[in-house]
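Private note to self, pasted from the team thread so I don't lose it. Backbone tokens:
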């Protein structure tokens, strides 16, 4: 092989090596750049909604006839107005929040991988996410409601998101106080969170189990991407 041919071969090899390195750098760098861009978009949009919330508060304080023109610029994502709430949905691989995490900034709620919905019906509440649907007894009249160890959690259905199969829990849920004995007491219920795409939702039961002015509070909560209900006395 002549020195000229060796020179050309070397040049081709160098070009191939440089091309491979550039491809590797681009493949590794582009996702990082996109994540940084999405984090910047998130921060700007969050500040926009905080400003909007402040403007709404000022208008409400000023009374009838007060008006504002507030520009809203959304660089990425989907903006939806529904049931008096403004919802912005950003799909990203950037780790802005932990999965299922929810942050409250006044009237602004920020959540990640939020798949919980909470709805109120005539006789019950439902908390639901990708894996679970729980139905709770609704009784909000303080003068006539009666609660006991079996009345709160009515049903629990596990959902398989892959094949759509739903399986109802067979065992009855029982809620005891301390001694583990059956009980019956006046009280009332309240759905603390309503809507869809929530990070978590809660149902509270206020139980007057001591026949005094003090109520024990039983909290049931469902978080995003969880296949279980949490219950505690607070």
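Design output:
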């Amino acid at each position: 092989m002549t020195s000229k041919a060796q020179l050309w071969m070397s040049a081709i090899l160098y070009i191939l090596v440089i091309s491979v390195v550039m491809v590797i750098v681009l493949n590794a760098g582009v996702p990082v750049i996109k994540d940084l861009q999405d984090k910047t978009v998130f921060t700007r949009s969050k500040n926009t909604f905080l400003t909007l919330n402040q403007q709404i508060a000022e208008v409400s304080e000023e009374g009838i006839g007060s008006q504002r023109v507030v520009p809203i610029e959304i660089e990425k994502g989907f903006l939806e107005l529904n049931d008096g709430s403004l919802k912005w949905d950003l799909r990203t691989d950037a780790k802005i929040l932990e999965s299922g995490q929810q942050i409250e900034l006044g009237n602004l709620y920020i959540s990640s991988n939020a798949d919980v919905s909470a709805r109120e019906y005539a006789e019950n509440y439902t908390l639901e996410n990708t894996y679970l649907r729980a139905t709770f007894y609704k009784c909000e009249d303080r003068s006539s409601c009666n609660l006991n160890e079996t009345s709160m959690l009515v049903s629990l259905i596990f959902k398989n998101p892959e094949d759509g199969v739903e399986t109802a829990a067979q065992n009855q849920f029982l809620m005891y106080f301390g001694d583990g004995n059956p009980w019956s007491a006046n009280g009332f219920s309240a759905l603390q969170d309503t809507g869809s795409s929530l990070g978590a939702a809660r149902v509270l039961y206020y139980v007057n189990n001591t026949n005094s002015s003090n109520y024990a509070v039983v909290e049931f909560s469902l978080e995003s991407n969880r296949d279980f209900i949490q219950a505690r006395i607070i």
